[in-house]
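Students often ask what a 'structure token' actually looks like in practice. Rather than answer in the abstract, let us consider Metal-dependent hydrolase, a protein of 283 residues. Its sequence is given first.
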Amino acid sequence: MAKAKTPADLTITPRDVRFGRDTRYRRWWLNDDPIATAFYNALSVTFPKGEGFFVDSVRRFREGTPPRLHAEIGAFVKQEVIHTREHVAFNRHVVDQGYDISRLEARVDRELALTRDRPAIGKLAATMCLEHFTAIIAHELVANPAHLAGGDQQAADLWRWHAIEEIEHKGVAYDTWLHATRDWTRFRRWWVKALVMVITTKKFFSGRTEGMLDLLEQDGLRGAGVKWRLFKYAFGRPGMARKVLGAWASFFLPGFHPWNHDDRSLIGLVDSEYAAARLPAVA
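Now compare that with the structural description of the same chain:
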């Protein structure tokens, strides 16, 4: 079995915070930019059902894990449940601004339906891959304030809070995978995770792009020019997709582990704002 490299002194701390309950976001809440707003709105629509999938996939393998991982899975579940609640609330703001998100939600349903009859270990592998996506996006969101500059305060705070918790628990699904596949050969483990990541990446990019274009079309923005603007936003400036590309590729390297890059210092940049909301450790 490959040895997990999660820091021994890491603490995963759920923070019970509520955002945007007494405010109304602008339609283009991120810097009055429809492209930037669609980028995050489309991503948020995937979270409630997607994070439910993550929780179910990881929790299925909790029994029999070492005590520390057992506790980390419990904390991971608690964090994801709160994330789901807050993105449900955020998505209500999206709807309140006149957007129809039913087609985006239907696509998420179709994507999840494809996994329904798959083995549990396959669902865990998909979760591990998607958790890598959320972790590297989270890192970039906190490391580079330009991504959320000009955003409505409560909305930007939601994304920053979510980001630090994604960084904090970024190793849980991976460590669960290592435990669940402890009897596999190293090559078999690498081959399966690499294959699943390639498939997951294709579905992630195609699905989220379709969702962004759907929301932009509802703003009357369509055509090749809009697609080019979206491409420039993702790969040019601020360039979220471009900036996470190297971290995404590191997943395929022998010896990869999410905590090979210890970026807990980023958590400290935001965590103090939610000190009063920290929940007790989950055993």
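One point worth highlighting: The chain has one domain: 34-277. Ask yourself how you might have guessed this from the sequence alone, and why that guess would often be unreliable.
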